[in-house]
Amino acid sequence: MKYKQIIIDKDAFVGIKFDKLCNFAKNHLLILPDVLCYECHTDFNIKTQRTLKHCQQLIQNGAYYCSCSTGFLQSEGSSLESYPWFLPDLEVTCRIKNGTSENVVPDAMQMFKARYGVACRLFVDAINRVCKRVPSELQDSLKKIQPQGIKDRFEKFLNNIDANKDQMRDFALRSMPDGWVKNISRFCLSEKWISWHYFRLVRIIAMEYSCRGLSSGAPSKKQAEHDYQDMEYVLLLSRADGLLTRDKKLVKPLAKAAFPEKDVFENLEDVPDEYLCNWS
């Protein structure tokens, strides 16, 4: 039986009472993604209310851990098959529940610097170069898109991306790190692949950054790192059925534009009974 999978992002994780989340996890297939663990671990605000320890506790109360985009890309590049529908990593989840996961906690600043570098390369550095080469007529059209609502802009970008699928796949192949794909002729063949959706989302945000860059200057590198993490939550909707988020700046509009058929919730009370799991 395929139970409905629901993702939770950091805004919802922080904004919903922890005991309610623990009770919810007992009878829902609640997925706590690696990116959430990362965000909690690299939150350098000393007043933060949710830490990596809270992530572990929620999993021990019934939630499931799943990988990040890097894990999915490597898996598909190696197996040359689209990742299956079931997101949870049962082996890691079991280790966390049993308290047998690695005792050595990765250095938070080191992790932050690594992902910060990836986000800057994907969104800021590349966009600064692109904006310098954009023809004046295209600059004018991008500036006209900017005043529209963010969801409307995302939908326009998606229409362009989805209408040029050969370009989309070519972008994915060119963007994969060297050695990650065993056979490029068999990789990222359609929308069935998580890799396809990863690079599709990267292109949406890159276009948004181009749009902003031409009108008011590209967003900061710090913002790029944050947006990259938000993109990862939306990516999981390529497999999951719903997303719990309270982020209205990027996560919610991006999710609704990229996956209009999926559910987006702000509160646990909004989640319908069809998401209940009868584990017995």
Describe this structure in words.
The chain has 280 residues and is an alpha/beta fold. The protein has one domain (5-275). Helix content is 56%, strand content 6%. The chain has a five-stranded parallel β-sheet, sandwiched between helices. Helix 4 (52-60) packs across helix 6, helix 7 (108-133) packs across helix 12 and helix 10 crosses helix 11 (194-216). It is globular and about 50 Å long.
- Total individual domains: 1
Distance between the termini: 12 Å
Identify low-pLDDT runs. none
Order of helices and strands: EHHEHHEHHHHHHHHEHE
SS elements, strand count: 5
Number of helices: 13
Reported for the largest beta sheet, the result is: 5 strands, parallel
Question: Could you give a short description of this structure?
Answer:
By secondary structure, the protein is of the alpha/beta class. The protein contains 13 helices and five strands.
Properties at a glance:
280 residues; alpha/beta; five-stranded parallel sheet; 5 strands
Annotate the secondary structure layout.
Layout lengths: L4 E4 L1 H6 L2 H8 L3 E5 H8 L10 H9 L3 E3 L2 H11 L10 H9 L9 H26 L2 H10 L4 H13 L2 H11 L18 H23 L4 H15 L6 E3 L6 H8 L4 E3 L15
Parallel strand pairs: 1-2, 1-4, 2-3, 4-5
